[in-house]
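Fold this: Hexosyltransferase
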Amino acid sequence: MGVFTVFLYHRYYLKRIHQVKLKPDLLYGDRYLVDLELGIKHKKGSYRFSEHVYQKKGSSRLCSPKGLTWNKAATVYFVLPVKDQGEWVYHFINEITAASLLTKDENFHVIVVDFESQDISISQAFDTDLLRNRHTIINMKGKFYKTLALNKAVEHIPSEHDLLFLFDLHIDVPADIMDSVRKNTIQGHIVFCPQVGRLNCGSSSVDHKGYWELEGYGLVGVYKSDWIRFGGMNTEEFKYKWGGEDWDLLDRIINLSLEVERIKYPGLYHHYHTKTKKWG
């Protein structure tokens, strides 16, 4: 692998390959997200190498693409619009708590936009040791208005250099979710839209029988600065109806020449649920 291999050979040795993702480009060459554990020669301990690398078409060398360095210290802001979804709010709380405890990653914040939920006290639910100082509640009145809720939530994110992740209450939280959002989202360059595994009715995250959602782009990892550039959610055309708002958003992302990172994400499973009397 040319210069990259020589660099590794002289200073490090490979201990473990955690993950290698390929983003092919038939015209220019391939980009890889390489996640390795390297040992340091003649020293104890190990070093994590997790970077985007590029292989130009026709070349055996790997190089570091300009501007594609991900922010390992970025706070991930989960954005959740809610109305009368108490059971699923607790599902999210349990999932995000387990993920954080397992990975020791506490660099996140949850923004909940609540439309007068009657089946749960959001403030009490988030009053836990982990989440007490890692959540913000925005109270809104009236009919559930998803696109407006998402825009309001992003307004409360303090810095344009912060990283937001539009999420869904009915989805399991993989242990490495914060790390994955950071790695796959790069300010000014890449927006992360992972594919969700939709579970069949009666299936669970253990047997995970279902299908990959190929058309939905509801989960979005993006920096606030890029969100501002493409204008956020379209609140005029998508007020109370469901469907299409994610594709509208995707069109504007692509029109800005931002790259969309689209991968199947094992563990990111959407549980089947009835929509009866929901989001009214």
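The radius of gyration is 20 Å. The helical segments are 3-11, 86-103, 122-125, 146-155, 177-184, 224-230, 245-255.
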